[in-house]
Amino acid sequence: MANDTTRAASPGWTDPECPVARTLDLVGDRWSLLVIRDAMDGARSFTEFQRRTGIARNILTDRLRKLTAHGLLVQRTAPSGRRQEYVLTDTGRDLFPVILTLRQWGERHAFAPGESHSVLVDQHGTPVPRLAPADAAGTPLDSASTHVRKTR
């Protein structure tokens, strides 16, 4: 999401040349990712986001404003015509692999063995397989087989 709107709206990047740091500057707080998660799961209204997350109204207002300003959500009139709703943009939907990776990490490391938790399933009800990065030849990648090429 490297666009002029984002750069102009956030002049104080934590680490201007690091994509991870810029992403965290935009969505790295707990509430922003939970709002994105719930939008991916069908939440649209302020009330739905608040009910699902338990977030305080003032914090939710701030996060929705920020996510909208940075192009992850768009606000539009609901089909009923009586209220506004928030809908993921393509930029917001591009966070799906991030949410999936966080979910899968949590399934492996944030629950005791046998402890129950929600499961992400595809349209056929089948659990989503583990996301694993691979190089162009299909070889699995991890922190030992990759490195960051700095721009400076």
Description:
The chain is mainly α and 152 residues long. It has helices at 4-9, 19-27, 30-40, 46-53, 57-69, 90-93, 96-109; strands at residues 73-77, 84-88. The protein has a two-stranded antiparallel ribbon with strand order 1-2. The radius of gyration is 18 Å and the shape is globular. The model is unreliable at 4-9 (pLDDT under 50).
Instruction: Please report the total strand number as a whole number.
Output: 2
Tell me about the biggest sheet?
2 strands, antiparallel
Task: Name the average pLDDT.
Answer: 92
Strand order of the largest sheet: 1-2
| Strand residues, percent | 5-15%
Give the C-alpha Rg: 18 Å
Q: Helix amount, in percent? A: 40-55%
Shape: globular
Structural class: mainly alpha
Cα(first) to Cα(last) distance is 21 Å
N to C succession of SSEs: HHHHHEEHH
Uncertain residue segments: 4-9
Number of distinct helices: 7
